[in-house]
Amino acid sequence: MEWHRLELDTRFPTVETGARKWLIAFGIALAPLLETVDSTIVNVALPNVQGNLGASLDEGAFVITAYLVTNVIVIPLTPWFAERLGRRQYLTLSIVGFTIASMLCGLSPNIWTLIAMRLVQGFFGGGLIATTQAALRDLFPVEQANVGQAIFGVCIATGPILGPLLGGIIVDQLDWPWIFYVNLIPGTISAVVAWTMLRNPYKPKKMQIDLLGVLTLAIGVGGLQYLLDEGERKDWFDSQAIVIAAVCAVVGIALFVLRELTARRPIVELRALADRSIWSGCLLAAGFGTTLIGLNFILPQYLQGSINFTPTLSGEYLLFRGLPVVLLAPAIGAILGANKLDPRLLIATGLLCTGLGTGWIGILTTSHSDFGTLVWPLVLAGVGTAFLIIPLLTVVVASVSADKAPAASAWVTLSIQLGGSISSAIVVVLLDRRQRWHSDVLAGHTSKAVPALHGMSLDGLFATIQGQSYVLAYADIAYLVSAIALVLVPVVAFVRRPPKGKPIEAAVG
């Protein structure tokens, strides 16, 4: 029997009832919420961090990159850690490690200590998402199986949206260490609940670790993440560091794939990707990460740089993408639980709403837009997020056999993270290039004879052209994100649907 297969005769009951069930659910749900908030909260406060610690722009960027590198490396390993240590033990260890690392980040006396602590924080944070998803899935009885996934989906979708708001408030009202200290109380609560109340679904197993697999994974995925995060800032392959990262990514990933396909006991189950539900689910999850993180990346820049929103106000605006997820989660969970409607229709609807809402934002992206004008397309995109992420997380895992479920959770989680990272890198490149293109076009068609420009100095004219070219570039990015969501709609057909008429989890087990 393969290492990832759960032996049913060693399982302990994990289903809870009454108030205990809800206490555990919301206690452990704090873990992925903290992890996803931390993926975006630092971005807003980075200028303050650099100023207070005397760091350069490149050094400050490592604060974000360090977290993402170790986070992405650990995510594929979470099924192995959970089975080796026990799910309760591993989740608790991850929460405690993440919380302590958060405190140490806030106490860092210099930039390099902060970067080191962010590496540690990302390492423990990588174990929070897929492990919590599995725990929530096993916590509820069959007739409520989708409630846990709805709770998890809300955390995944709203965390990156809450991050900029919390970061803006902290920047405006407090000092930068508080972007890390905010994790201490909820992290402590989550760790206590996980350790004292969560039950293990199976006994921990003694297994040898595939050190070569871990090493090649770290080199390959770490190099890829660094390449994506730092490529544009370092002018891509004109930088020796980027060239080295690219070589590490290609060679490391190739060796990792070869090792895991030939190892007797692989640490990452690559063969699970041959399942059509898993590979199509990963593609859709990457698309979700692209639409969520890609749009969240450009909106604060547009809001604060082009129409003069404060950091707090731009964070409040982004909340309108998260609110529909929270409000619609119970209804979507009920629909999934009944399993009378093909859940793939919900995913397709989510992609359509996301694409249309994002395209609408692109149409309204001008230098004179206001809060009221822009809020409704963001709400539509938020409705799309709710219909996309909650069914996707549930159906992909439910459409595969029980022994593949842990790998499916980990791969979908990794795909969301990589989709966000790749889209962020692409957005930076396209924003720069489209801004320059629009600037050249506007300059070529601008004449000081135009009445609206009479009396304007050359410096003023240049500033106007630059400002408008950025607005047009932001709109282009919104159109691209919209197109990605719409193009992915046919991929939904490759995800299997559970047998009609049964609760989704019952159809699997």
Word description of this protein:
The protein is mainly alpha-helical and 509 residues long. It contains 18 helices and no strands. It has helices at residues 18-53, 57-74, 78-85, 87-106, 111-125, 129-139, 145-173, 178-181, 184-197, 211-230, 240-262, 276-305, 311-338, 343-364, 371-398, 405-444, 458-487, 504-508. Helix 1 packs antiparallel against helix 6, helix 4 (87-106) packs antiparallel against helix 5 (111-125) and helix 12 packs antiparallel against helix 17. The longest helix has 40 residues, at 405-444. It is globular and about 75 Å long. The two termini are 18 Å apart. Residues 1-12 and 505-509 have low confidence and may be disordered.
Keywords:
509 residues, 18 helices, 75% helix, disordered N terminus, mainly alpha
Outline the biggest β-sheet.
none
Let me know the number of strands: 0
Shape: globular
Rg, nearest Å:
23 Å
Q: What is the beta-strand fraction? A: under 5%
